[in-house]
Amino acid sequence: MLFLLLITNALASPTSTIKSVASNSLNGLRGAEFQGIRSLSRGALQQLARSRRANRQSSHRLGERRRVSASAENFPALKNDLLIRAARGEQTEKVPIWMHRQAGRYLPEFRNYSDRFPFMHRCSTPDIATRLTIQPVERYGLDAAIIFSDILVLLPPLGIEWGMVKGKGPVVSEPINTPEDLVRVRTVKQSDITSELSYVMEALSRSRRELDGRATLIGFSGAPWTLLGYMVQGEGAKSTAAVKAKGFLYQYPDASHKLLETITDAVVLYLVEQVRAGAQMVQVFDSWAGELTPELFAEFSTPYLKDVATRVKQQLKEQGLPQVPVSVFPKGASGHALPDLSNSDYDVISLDEGIRPSIARQQAPNKVLQGNLDPAVLYLPKDVIKAETRKMVDNFGTNKYIANLGYAVDKSMDPELVGAFVEELHDYSEAKNGLTTPAAS
Hints:
seven-stranded parallel sheet, disordered N terminus, 18 helices, two-stranded antiparallel ribbon, 9 strands
């Protein structure tokens, strides 16, 4: 079965050889879309795991060579540093903008790939991931590109298999059910990151070169609580309300903290390696933050989010790597998470649409804020989009601010209307700073 999967991937790839696809499948494609992971036998999953373990030792050496090469690489100079300056709290001539899930199926050029290749094939094939990363920058003149990947790619190095199931989304093959299951969770080393996620690093390096300084390149990771949520729940929170994952926190608090510590260690290593590979900013996505009560969030998410930011910055400094801005997105928890996160080492806090800019400024006066246009606005006529964009800029101001959506671009959105948002944001914020004359609505 594994051999057939490798051959199928090779034939589907327009550029890769069978050898390179086999390497991707064993090292990076782990959670590959088998079009129904639950239909695989336990033996097939175990065979895949054994194949990865057998391949790990030689891959570590390859990953180490790539790590040394990337650390010494001279990337093109950043010509558009608008986002970096804003993230550092510096004055900018206009507000920078990028969007969560800006590389997505709403773009016809993206669908040219998504219609032909499964999700994990796109993620784990660096030339495809690079092209998808850059497409929105080329179309809209955005100030940042975020690497095309997924927060769950970090699960296999932790020993947890997952797959993308058509019509259902990500599914974990063997979720964590009790504290006894923690024996299946691996302690991740730097060599695990550089070898097993080498395809992410290669995509980052390629994207950095091909952007040629036109926009900031953002790397990212899932937050410890969000990754624990998937590991325990076994699938997305949207259809399950994360009941099982939250139950694990209530029933097994000690085991939960132990697992969160292990995940945090992996997240820190992963983000540092992304900077080494070319990321100029990194963001931590706590996509399940809103599933927790404020009390649970304070105990099981906030301490680990803070630890990630502090340790990433420490390790970047110790290893002589660029001191890039670090951002966090506590999706669905902006209303209660800000006071604690304002007392952290994050440079930027991304907001969902559930909090007023004035309140956010009061609760985190020392932080750069990012967000938070209601994505529903992008389904409306252009004059409404322009009016709401202007209102957002007026409420946040043009300093210590990065524009984004409260969540993400949806596959059903009109690319032209998305473009209207980007254009109005740039034009109006520049005019507000007195550099141009605002266009009539």
